[in-house]
Amino acid sequence: MVLKNNLVSRSGPFAHFLGEIKHIILFYVLGDFITTYHALNYGFEENPFLAILMNEFGIWSMLIMKIIFIGIIYLYYLTIMNTGFVWKDHIWLASRSAVCLLGIFLVANNLLVIFSKYSLVQL
User: Fold this and answer.
1) How far apart are CA 10 and CA 17, in angstroms?
2) pLDDT grade, residue 4 (50/70/90)?
């Protein structure tokens, strides 16, 4: 535990940020990308912006957009953590939990499309 705290304290805010968003990376970035890639064989992208983007530049453009979104979340994280606001840890927890829950919903929806050919968005 002491070794981990020493490594985190020396590694800087970005390494700490990556540890904080591991579930966002798992569900929102990787989970949604992989399941969307497979779900496109059974349906189409419901998000019109992503549909146009993927039609023009391919499926990898969605992954690039997710990486850009992680960059925006990092700027948000730095802004929140550099304030003197008492509730900053709670705001950060709520924010990252919301994005993670969105990722879980997207993965579940894509799996539903893959296995049953129906989408929660279509209902």
Assistant:
1) 13
2) low
User: Which stretches of 1-123 are DSSP H helices?
Assistant: 2-11, 13-20, 22-23, 32-39, 48-57, 60-81, 88-116
| Nearest partner of 33 among 21, 45, 22, judged by Cα | 45
**Rounded to whole angstroms, what are the CA distances from 56 to 12, 48, 63?**
38, 12, 14
Q: Residue 45 CB: number of other CB atoms within 10 A?
A: 17
What is the reported pLDDT for 10? Answer: 60
Using a 10 angstrom Cβ sphere, with 0-12 exposed, 13-18 middle and 19 or more buried, the burial of residue 103 is buried
CA 33 to CA 26: how far, in whole Å? 10
The model's pTM is 0.84
CA dist., res. 31 & res. 52, Å (int): 21
Q: Which residues contact 38 (CB under 8 A, 6 or more apart)?
A: 110, 114
The per-residue pLDDT for range 43-58, each reduced to its tens digit, is: 788 889 988 999 999 9
